[in-house]
Amino acid sequence: LRLDEKVRVVVFKSEVKGVFCAGADLKERAKMDDAEVGHFVRRLRNLMDEIAALPVPTIAAIDGYALGGGLELALACDLRVAASSAKMGLIETTRGLLPGAGGTQRLPRCVGIGLAKELIFTGRQIDGQEAFSMGLVNHTVPQNDVGDAAYQRALALAKEILPQAPFAVKMGKLAINRGMEVDIASGMAIEGMCYAQNIPTRDRQEGMAAFREKRPPQFTGK
Q1: Claim to verify: residue 103 and residue 186 sit in the same structural domain
Q2: Is 24 known to be catalytic?
Q3: Residues of the domain holding 188
Q4: Could you read off the pLDDT of 102-118 as tens digits, one per residue?
Q5: Model's pTM, two decimal places?
């Protein structure tokens, strides 16, 4: 996906009704020794980092349970859409663990330190409406009879992104992600570097031409 220039947006959904991702299989985990558990979690953390580093926007469609590593997967995405009936939580402390695939880092960056600590310390599960009210998800929608309301809303969101200039969207994502990790002056420099890369693109010229000619732009990603 990272290397496929035709990919504009990636939507993560589940094929299992009522479950986005329920996290690690604790029965399987119980059969592992300490070294195997450490190796497993490092690989999982690396996977989440790779998802977060995808250059195109990513959307998690949460139509059911997103618990533990399942919520960490959603947090690794840029945007999250949840059904109001979905259940989310970093429940690791209820199993004698702590989040190990990015949850302790991405949740506070998403909802703030105080809320993140409360959710992680208590292992509490919240529904889609609660997640929306605290900014954990971008949108919440009533579940439908098919059980894919969040996926349908995620597709609609993806279709809003699709017509926009692909390279500009990628540079916007890069500038935001890198800028959030540094002070604002350094962030401004990062934005400037990303903007400079966008200036010579054909899409920028097309955007200007379309505006002058009062027509929709036809972006190619070049």
Answers
A1: no
A2: yes
A3: 166-213
A4: 999 999 999 999 999 99
A5: 0.93
